[in-house]
């Protein structure tokens, strides 16, 4: 596999380094309670592995409605989950938000989540939350193969994501194997097809694909003619199209559908920590972002992630969730540790 990186590829993000502040300063206390009128009060700290711009929209709207001050600490899925586990009961986090499910399952398996309030659970369909209800889905993103429409005709596209491991796809596709997004896709493959099939597919990926640092870089490579296709999440394409389209003008998204592993829909998660010093406000925040106003941020904003809660429709530019024909995967069963081990053994990490 050829490795191509951008100028930032060598920068390692420390788990405690990226600190984003939203709505208030870093000195906010997490003490608080529910007021006599039933509204939350005080302040909370959110460990955020979702996109910072999306979470800021949620935080600003929540604070405007409730007065609860929110401090946001920003990092990647794995950084934040590992930090929470290391901190344990002493963690200052009240809420954990992620882009993908495996980091949520990691924290859940460590026994660090409180139960999600039933009113919040009821706002999210069962397909978009774990069977355990120890956390909940807050948004979703679909796996998609973006391809160079000048190089590949529609009749030559792979019928399944598994076909990308076949010899005819050698040197023709790209991905970002080091990212949590791609590892979530592999986690779903492991859950759906088992260890032997996943091991074989990763071997084929090692032989056939080119690695880039980040989904955006992989899509840009397709657009520039460096590779024919890339396996990424859908919103990178739609986000670029909504701007200048300069990194996607030669790119077309292809949806595998048919319950294929390549049709996997990854659930972004949110959970309340058992150690929260302001559980009432933390639960209220989770209820808010899965509620109508929170999901309308997804519908009307620029993240182009799918709305999944409170019957709010997604952005009308997206292929409807019901048309994706995604396979059923329990987010609680996605195994990031096993996937990291298998990808390392395959020489992809």
Task: Write up what this structure looks like.
- By secondary structure, the protein is an alpha/beta fold.
- 33% of the residues lie in helices and 15% in strands.
- It has helices at residues 52-66, 77-87, 101-109, 118-121, 180-193, 195-208, 215-223, 235-242, 279-290, 292-300, 336-345, and strands at 3-4, 43-48, 69-74, 95-97, 136-148, 173-175, 209-212, 229-233, 251-254, 265-272.
- Strands 1, 2, 3, 4, 5, 6, 7, 8, 9 and 10 form a 10-stranded mixed β-sheet that branches.
- The longest helix has 15 residues, at 52-66.
- The N and C termini lie close together (11 Å).
Keywords:
single chain; 349 residues; alpha/beta; ten-stranded mixed beta sheet; globular
Helices and strands in order, then pairings?
Layout: E1 3-4, E2 43-48, H1 52-66, E3 69-74, H2 77-87, E4 95-97, H3 101-109, H4 118-121, E5 136-148, E6 173-175, H5 180-193, H6 195-208, E7 209-212, H7 215-223, E8 229-233, H8 235-242, E9 251-254, E10 265-272, H9 279-290, H10 292-300, H11 336-345
Parallel strand pairs: 1-7, 2-3, 2-4, 6-7, 6-8
Antiparallel strand pairs: 4-10, 5-8, 5-9, 5-10
Helix pairs in contact: 1-10, 2-3, 5-6, 5-11
């Amino acid at each position: 596999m050829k490795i191509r990186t951008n100028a930032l590829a060598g920068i390692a993000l420390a788990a405690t380094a990226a600190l984003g502040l939203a709505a208030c300063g870093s000195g906010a206390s997490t003490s608080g309670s529910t007021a006599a009128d039933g509204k939350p009060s005080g302040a909370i700290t959110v460990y955020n592995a979702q996109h910072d711009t999306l979470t800021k929209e949620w935080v600003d709207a929540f604070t405007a409605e409730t007065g609860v001050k929110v401090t946001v600490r920003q990092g990647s899925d794995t950084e934040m989950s590992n930090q929470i586990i290391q901190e344990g009961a002493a963690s200052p986090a009240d809420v954990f938000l992620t882009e993908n499910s495996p980091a949520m399952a990691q924290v859940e398996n460590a026994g660090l989540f409180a139960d999600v309030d039933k009113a919040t659970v009821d706002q999210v369909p069962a397909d978009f939350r774990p069977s355990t209800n120890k956390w909940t889905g807050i948004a979703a993103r679909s796996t998609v193969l973006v391809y160079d429409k000048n190089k590949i005709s529609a009749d030559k596209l792979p019928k399944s994501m598994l076909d990308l491991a076949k010899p005819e796809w050698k040197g023709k596709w790209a991905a970002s194997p080091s990212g949590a997004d791609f590892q979530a896709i592999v986690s779903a493959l492991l859950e759906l097809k088992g260890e032997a099939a996943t091991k074989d597919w990763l071997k084929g990926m090692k032989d056939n694909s080119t690695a880039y640092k980040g989904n955006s870089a992989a899509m840009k490579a397709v657009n520039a003619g460096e590779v024919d296709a890339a396996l990424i999440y859908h919103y990178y394409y739609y986000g670029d199209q909504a701007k200048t389209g300069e990194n996607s003008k030669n790119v077309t998204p292809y949806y595998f559908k048919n319950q294929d592993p390549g049709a996997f829909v990854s659930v972004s998660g949110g959970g309340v920590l058992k150690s929260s010093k302001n559980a009432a406000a933390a639960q209220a925040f989770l209820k808010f972002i899965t509620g109508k106003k929170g999901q309308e941020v997804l519908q009307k904003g620029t993240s182009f992630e799918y709305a999944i809660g409170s019957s709010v429709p997604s952005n009308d530019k997206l292929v409807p969730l019901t048309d994706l024909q995604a396979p059923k995967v329990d987010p609680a069963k996605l195994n990031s540790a096993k996937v990291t081990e298998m990808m390392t053994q395959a020489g992809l990490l």
